[in-house]
Specification:
Blueprint (H helix, E strand, L loop, with lengths): L1 E6 L2 E8 L2 E7 L9 E5 L3 E3 L1 H9 L3 E5 L5 E5 L7 H10 L3 H25 L2 H15 L8
Parallel strand pairs: 1-5, 4-6
Antiparallel strand pairs: 1-2, 2-3, 6-7
Helix pairs in contact: 3-4
């Protein structure tokens, strides 16, 4: 069982049961800086004050159940740069956009292939190799 609360300006995290309870007191300005707090399991509780404390220092909160399913989470939205999004959309039909697309898709195919070489069937590995070769022959982003 895990609990979160704020006590004297610090985040107090308690976890465990019976005589095996561990406690951590986390300051706002500690080093290294707290970036995310992940809670794993079913039982426990937190206060809204603890969640607000995490938000104020820019840390995210994630609660996972025992199967790894997200129960609750928080976080700050990333930076919003409309000009960057417009440039990314415009780059789609350029040589630079094609090069970036090939690089990203190629890395994805390579990663999938390395996993399948260990755990998958040879037939699927061969099809991924064919897809990697076809990627090299693409002349626009729509083909990739």
């Amino acid at each position: 069982m895990t609990s979160l609360r704020v006590e004297r300006g610090h985040l107090l995290v308690r976890s465990g049961a019976g005589r095996d309870i561990r406690e951590a007191r986390i300051p706002k300005v500690g080093r290294p800086r707290l970036r995310r707090l992940v809670i794993f399991g079913r039982g426990g509780h937190t206060t809204f004050e603890a969640l607000a404390w995490l938000d104020r220092i820019g840390a995210s909160f994630l609660h996972l159940d025992r199967s790894g399913r997200v129960v609750a989470m928080s976080g700050q939205p990333g930076p919003d740069f409309p000009a960057l999004r417009r440039a990314q959309v415009a780059a789609h039909d350029t040589d630079v956009g094609l090069s970036i697309t090939k690089c990203l898709v190629g890395a994805k195919l390579s990663g999938q292939r390395s996993v399948l070489e260990r755990y998958g069937s040879k037939d699927v590995v061969d099809r991924l190799a064919d897809a990697s070769q076809a990627l090299g022959a693409c002349t626009d982003s729509r083909q990739a």
